[in-house]
Every structure is written in structure tokens, then in C-alpha cells.
Amino acid sequence: MFAENDLDVDSISENSWHDALNYAKAMDQVKDEVGSKTITEAGIEQAKAAPWPDHIETVADGLQFIVEADRDAHRGGYEGGYVVEETGDHSARIGIKQGAPYPLENFKGVFLGAGRQLSDGSVDLSETSPGPDEQAAFELTW
């Protein structure tokens, strides 16, 4: 599926850049052919594998780190991204901006995975109303 979307898996290295839209197309293909749960699980695994800096100690810190890491990991016209707003001591609203190319299931997985990595208790992610510049929004509680 990656090759069908002009992605050479053998050429991937830590410091190389790859076309985010081609990667997003491959993720959509996986979702369509294998199922959305696979994409959610991939997002959870992405969060598990993330190199969390030492200063990230809370879920709220982690959510802000994801926003910054996403921005830093994309270049050349990427218009996606996230908006995170803490709504309580153990909750946050996450808005997925219009133009974010990845399947929503992947975003769900990343934020669930981050919550699980950084919280001592249970984590829940529920859909909420998106803002005018958002394609989706979630409430994460931990």
C-alpha cells in the first residue's frame, strides 16, 4: 500500500522527509481495506513510540508537545494540525483543523495513546462539536 502511494519504506530514515499527503493516502487505503480500528491502533502505537522529552510529565504537557511536534514535523504547505485547550484539571478539548490530511481515526489513536502513556488512570476520548475551522473535535479526559 505504501508503494502504491509513492512511499519507499526501505528509504525511510530518522532525518529524512516524506510527503505527508502520500502517507495520508496510504493510511486512508489501509482504513478502507483493513478497517478503521487498525488506523486507531496505529495512532496509539505512534504515541507509545514517541520520544517524550523529560520535561513532559502530565497529559496536558504531552498534548501541547504533540501540537508542537506535529507543526515541526511538517513543511511545505501542510495546513493541518491541532488546537488543544485545557478544560479542567484532567480534561482537554482537541480540535482537528480543516486541512489535516490524516484519517480522524489516527488522530483519535494518537491522543488516546498519549493520554495512556502519561496518565496513571483511565483515559476517555469522546467527540464534541467542532469549531468553524475544524473538521472534528474531541474531549479527552484522564
Structure description:
- With about 140 residues, this protein is of the alpha+beta class.
- The protein has helices spanning about 20-35, 35-50, 60-75, 105-120, and strands at about 80-90, 90-95, 125-130, 135-140.
- A four-stranded antiparallel beta sheet has the order 1-2-4-3.
- Strand 1 (about 80-90) and strand 2 form a beta hairpin.
- Helix 2 runs parallel beside helix 4.
- The N and C termini lie far apart (about 35 Å).
- The model has no long low-confidence stretch (mean pLDDT about 85).
Give the helix proportion (percent range): 40-55%
Largest sheet: 4 strands, antiparallel
Average pLDDT level:
86
> What is the H-and-E element order?
HHHEEHEE
The general outline is: globular
Indicate the radius of gyration in whole angstroms: 15 Å
Distance N terminus to C terminus? 35 Å
Query: Would you tell me the structural class of the helices and strands?
Result: alpha+beta
Proportion of beta-strand residues:
15-25%
Number of beta strands? 4
pLDDT below 50 for ≥5 consecutive residues: which ranges?
none
The number of helices is: 4
The strands making up the biggest β-sheet line up spatially as 1-2-4-3
Give structural attributes.
single chain; 142 residues; alpha+beta; four-stranded antiparallel sheet; 41% helix; globular
List the helices and strands and how they pair.
Layout: H1 20-33, H2 36-49, H3 59-73, E1 82-88, E2 91-97, H4 104-118, E3 124-128, E4 134-141
Antiparallel strand pairs: 1-2, 2-4, 3-4
Helix pairs in contact: 1-2, 2-4
